[in-house]
Structure formats: C-alpha cells, structure tokens
Amino acid sequence: MVQTQKQSHYPSITTHENVVKRTLSITVDNEPGVLARVIGLFSGRGYNIDSLTVTETEHAKHVSRITIVTQGTPMVIAQIKNQLDRLVPVHRVHDLTEEGNPLERELALVKVVGKGEKRIEALRMAEIFRANVIDASIEHFVFEVIGKSSKVEQFISIMTELGLVEVSRTGIAAIGRGATTG
Questions:
Q1: Domain coordinates of the chain in residue numbers?
Q2: What is the pLDDT of residue 100?
Q3: Assigned CATH topology for domain 20-100
Q4: Which label site among 72, 110, 124, 133 has the fewest CB atoms less than 10 Å from its CB?
Q5: Whether the predicted pLDDT of 14 surpasses 80
C-alpha cells in the first residue's frame, strides 16, 4: 500500500521564514456585509485574526476603518494585503507596522472581587497601572485600564491573583505616526 501525503494550497508556517505580527488599517464603505466579506477572506483562507476593531470614521462619507492584527510569514501577509485590496468595498489597506511603529492602544474593563488585603492590593496595583475605578462596592471593583496590549495583559495577570472574575477587552485601536494618513 502506497501512502500519499496531502498537499496544502497554503504555505506551511514551518518554512524557514519568520512569522511576523502586523497591524493592518483597512478603510471600507460602511454598508451591510462589508465586515463579513473582510472576515470571510481571513477565515476562508485559514488566516487568523488576533485583534479586530471597526467603527465608522467619516459619517458624511459612510466610511469605516477596520483595524486587524494578524500574524503570518511575509508572503502570507503580502497575500492578505493583496486580497484585501481587491475587495470591492475596500478603499485602502495600510500595513501600519511596515510603515513604522504605529501607536496602538487597547481598553479593558476588569472586574475584581475581594475583601481585606487583596482589595487594598488591587487598588494599589490599579494606581501603579493608572487604571481608573469605574464601579465599586464593598465587595468588588471594576477597573478601566488603557494602554498597549502588553500592559493590559500584565494588569490582568496581576489581578488574576487578587480576585479577577471577569474581563472585557476592546481589541487594538491603532494609528500611524507622523503627518501621513492611514
């Protein structure tokens, strides 16, 4: 019996190329189904999305901005950008990472339940991370923390040991540095 190995249509991530993380800014028409088409491009080709944010940015023109953080080899990233460029409702695709160290921020709401020393420590750590208390009772706090994803991750990690019970995160909002638009 001869066994054949199934060939994939997609490049193997086990190649010698390094996997890179990229933040893409995609300007699209704000109309029904556009987000589904963009996401369908990713899922249909087996690409992963690490973070996704979208909102209307130019109300008069009905234009939205989708910010996607993804990973892949440089060849896969190039394919993603080329395929996004070909979608009809897409106006522009900018690789903010490639264009130069984008400003990236994320918002997280973090609920911590506890009493006594853990409660005091949670407040102390929140002050260090410049997190705001946006809801509180004698048994809980809800903190708002804003910053790079690494800061948010670190805050969540610390709060896990102090009584973390719930987290809600927005995903990354990003913009390019300098006077140019993206």
A1: 20-100, 103-175
A2: 86
A3: Alpha-Beta Plaits (3.30.70)
A4: 124
A5: no
